[in-house]
Design brief:
Length: 131
Amino acid sequence: MLRVTRIDHVTVIVTDLAAARAFYAGVLGLTEIAPPKEFDFVAVWYDLGGQYLHLLQKPHPDTPSPRHFCLHVDDVAAAHEHFRTLGIPTDETVKIAAADRFFVRDPDGNRIELLQWQRPYHPDTDGRLSG
């Protein structure tokens, strides 16, 4: 039986490595690490504490969509203020039980959710299965 234990990494497409690095390292404060030396293509990796974010350079960005990845923050109000101070627009979204969250976009339009859990999520009482 297959047993998935966690998400290992998320990959996003970027077109301008300098702008992407300025955003992911400079704005988000992520730590860049070396990708595998076997790669024969351009990839930038960031360590998220044992999980990873991979940036792949391509000539064209992805089509804008609701697709996204989410970064947990300790203080969502401070995160909001951080982006406001930098002049980076934030998008509010549907409030969910137990969390405060919002979205930003990187220079290529990739959607990123910033989220702070206020308490543990309880699927039995906070959730609704759709079918």
